[in-house]
Amino acid sequence: RVFRISAAMDTTILAVVLALLAVVVGWFFMSNKSDEKGKPPAEEKKPEPAPKKEQAKPKAAESKATGKKGAKKETGHPQCLCMFKGHTDNLTCLRFSTTGKFAGTTSEDRKTIVWDLSKVPPTQAYNLSLELDHGIAVAFSPDDKYLAVAYARSKEVKIYPMKNAKDGAVSQFKSGHKGTLIGMQWANNGRFVVTCSDDSKDNVHVFSSKGQSLGVISPGALETYSSTISPDSRFISVASMQCDAKLWEVGDKDGEYKVVGKAMELTGRSGGGGAKGHSAAVHCVSFGGPSPGVLSGPSNSAATVSKDGTCKVWNIDVRYKFQEDPKCSATLPSPDGNPLHLCALSREASPAWLAAFSRTAGLLFFSLADNTLKSQIPISDCGSVFQMEWCPSPLAGHAAVLGTASTDGKSRLWVPEPL
Predict the structure, then answer these.
(1) Which residue from 49, 245, 276, 383 lies 20 to 30 Å from 174 (Cα-Cα)?
(2) Residue 290: how many CB atoms within 10 A of its CB?
(3) How far is CA 278 from the centre of its chain?
(4) What is the pLDDT at residue 40?
């Protein structure tokens, strides 16, 4: 009897254990199933398409797309003669030589490139690498025998021989500026070099080509945008936050060649027909007149552009020593009424063209024969231009060619009307 009771208990315990085990297994199975339902279904891998074989481009098409040393002939606009690129960082300057045979560019990539303009697109005459610094501006001597480079960090000006520039500078001098250099020019008569900075005063320094100080110019403005030398080397202009642009004379005085003093102001006080000067800051000044390397002649005209959205053309052939003011001969409005930032008068005895740039309207070409806007190039084609000037001599069969440097790292050559 005891045995029967024990057997019955063992059977009961076994049944309970089996029941519990069944519950656990069932719970585990249901839990896994619910987890699988919560997961997103696995994506089926689609077979990858076989890579397409690149078709080899014909050599003839390749030679048309590129020129010597990678200079691009693809212009993107009917008025663009060419784009020439050789820098790998931001451009800082574009300058033509006095003869129009060369152009120079500087960049933050520590290279200064001299371009041969005998062909279009231009080819590199040579590439000068600068150590531990980069050039902020470049300029040529009147005879194309020397090249001046203004250094951004050291604020020095170094002069190199054109033929053996890689052998090092033949002379150098400190500019003496405390602030950031924003420009440098070499006068067409070869007698002086001008540097410009964003200093609070004494913004413009004038030196002989050997580094001797010839004077200091302080425009008396909170901000200075640029300085420019007239083609006949008589005047230095300064564009600043003031609504009038001042011109200083350089010449012989008391047996010395130096900055003589302020000659005139472009204010329009005595302008014919009630003409008035600008009502806001003057952003840029440009002089007319031929380059002495091509044709000798006086600089009798100037142009200004302003925050007020207008270009003004001035007759500066006046008796300024008798306090006669320049006369405003034309006022040309920006097509969208917004500020204008740059201007350049073409290099003739009587300039035929005025180029202007606006950060909203783009590149503008005005004919001075009838004071009308002849063409407008959008920023999408010309880039954001920060410097421009006309080539002193005809180029590629064109009498007037404008060079521009823009923040996209490209230099371009333009004609004022569609080809």
Answers:
(1) 245
(2) 22
(3) 25
(4) 43
CB 335 within 8 A of CB 310: no
pLDDT at 142: 94
First vs last C-alpha separation in the chain:
124
Which residue positions in the chain have pLDDT lower than 50? Answer: 1-7, 33-72, 270-274
Phi and psi (nearest 5°) for 417? -130, 155
Write down the pLDDT at residue 366.
98
**Amino acid residing at 222:** L
At 35, which amino acid appears? Answer: D
Distance CA 270, CA 315 (A): 11
Whether the CA torsion 103, 104, 107, 109 is positive or negative: it is: positive
Residue-level pLDDT at 12: 66
Single-letter code of the amino acid located at 410: K
**Total residue count of the chain as it appears in this document:** 419
Looking from the CA of 259 toward its CB, the CA atoms found within 13 Å total 20
Q: Is 285 exposed, middle or buried (0-12, 13-18, 19+ CB in 10 A)?
A: buried
Nearest CA-CA partner of 316 in 305, 325, 308: 325
Secondary structure, 3-state, the chain = CHHHHHHHHHHHHHHHHHHHHHHHHHHHHHHHHHHHHHCCCCCCCCCCCCCCCCCCCCHHHHHHHECHHHCECCCCCCCEEEEECCCCCCEEEEEECCCCCEEEEEECCCEEEEEECCCCCCEEEEEEECCCCCEEEEEECCCCCEEEEEECCCCEEEEEECCCHHHCCCEEEECCCCCCEEEEEECCCCCCEEEEECCCCCCEEEECCCCCEEEEECCCCCCEEEEEECCCCCEEEEEECCCCEEEEEEEEECCEEEEEEEEEEECCCCCHHHCCCCCCCEEEEEECCCCCCCCCCCCCEEEEEECCCEEEEEECCCCHHHCCCCEEEEEEECCCCCCCCEEEECCCCCCCEEEEEECCCEEEEEECCCCEEEEEECHHHHCCEEEEEECCCCECCECCCEEEEECCCCEEEECCCCC
| Placement of tokens 């690129």 in the chain | 85
Q: b or e along 237-246 (b: 16 or more beta carbons within 10 Å of the residue's beta carbon)?
A: bbbbebbbbb
Decide: 411 and 403 in contact? Cβ < 8 Å.
yes
